[in-house]
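Re: the multi-chain job from yesterday

Posting the exact lines I submitted so nobody has to dig through the queue logs.
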Amino acid sequence: MRLVVDLNRCQGYAQCAFLAPDVFAMHGEESLLYNPHAEAAQREQVLRAATACPVRAILVEDPDDAPDRVEEEGLSGVR
Amino acid sequence: MSGDGALEQLRREGRIVIVGASLAGLRAAETLREEGFTGSLTLIGDEPHEPYDRPPLSKQVLLGHASADRTELPRRHGLDADWRLGVAAAGLDMAARRVRLADGDEVEYDRLLIATGVRARPWPHPTEAELDGVFVLRTRDDAARLQRRLAASPRRVLVIGAGFTGSEIASACRERGLPVTVAERGAAPLVGALGGVIGQVAAELQREHGVDLRCGIMVTGLEGDSAGRLRRAHLSDGTTLDADVAVVSLGATRNTEWLAGSGLGAGPRGIACDAGCRAFDVRGIVTDDVFVAGDVARSPHALFGYQFLSLEHWGNAVAQAATAAHNMISSSSERRPHLWVPAFWSSQFGVNIKSVGVPSLGEEVIVTQGSLAEHRFTGVYGYQGRVIAAVSFDQTKWLEFYQRQIESAAPFPPEYSSVDRRPEGLRPVPADFPDPSLPTHGPSVTVSGYSPTDQRITFTPARA
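And the result, structure tokens for all chains:
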């Protein structure tokens, strides 16, 4: 599943790093490094982390609620 | 009333084309759908990939914590869009409202959004740039190539240019245990973005982490062996440096060449637009149907003396794309100005660097909290007696306060006391930015004719 963190908003509360440590990790005192592609097995943890973020900085695309993919929308004009 | 009818028709069955399928292009497309646009939507991107996120490329990806080819941006919802990926836009006919593609195809629009962004400025000597071991870092393909080479344990990495990208690359190299030399023409890393006072802190960080940092130095040549592999670099102090990897981090060039001759006010400094993201043509007249967003845009900001700001910031791409998309399908009275307060972050050598406002406008800087020596502080920049920007090293929690100070034009130096103020925070010091009067890459414009009806403007983009 795809995710992105708005690091302008992030204030290093580290809730995500506690709840989904395989995806989010603190790097130094307050920098957050995350994997923008989380495995499906991490789904529950990632969704919990996104919900727990005090500044709502985490955007997750839930594959169970996935929007259309590029292939389905027509690539390179071959619609 | 006919105007309202036309707008309704545009929203219902109009054709919107977005050139540039990265962060700004994607967010604009999402906003258009969210605001009820049901017409046809086409996204054109020169890279063959779906929109992906770039900030991880110089950090997580180089460290091997994330894969370069799994950085696609999450979608807020489906777009029902026609994606033309892997084919660049090659020309614009504003009169016929047509975008020409590199494969010869043409796409017609009622509203056009240009979000073509920037690309890495290449090493200026083409044959040296082609040496095996010379890299730039902008795209995910760049990141994948560089990450593979770093994983193969080169003997020494040379980073050319110590802006944010170069500094982050050096940080990743050190974390991987690789010997790294950074060559910076200025007096310190990050000096263009944050000034010399804060730049000195960045220099200390690099040296404490084992970077061989050389400031006031230019790389004058790259030398390869008979097999075309990079072997050493020649420096402006007459010395040479053995290195098998060089990463050219000399900033970015705006992707506007495809607009040459279109009549749009586009050149090496980007595409000028009004605060509502409508592009200017070369005559300085604002267009009705061409909009701009993201790194390629230059727009006047009311908070900063209406100066035209060009912001290569992640947050700017997101905010400006949303504003442009809204304005594209709104009547003039419903349009919004792009008033986002500039903000960016960088993570390097274990320190979280964040900024709000426009530090490079700052004449003076004062450390209001923490201490430079501890590499943990908040610095506030002043311009003509008001707070214009702030930067934090591992003190992000204070920045929102200073953003409000910037938005309310609070007096500088700050009159209030602040938590953890040290003796060094009692007086502002010159922020020490490089001389802004050094030559820039401005376009040349010539005017011919005498009466207003005869006057013609010829626009010649200067070379970047």
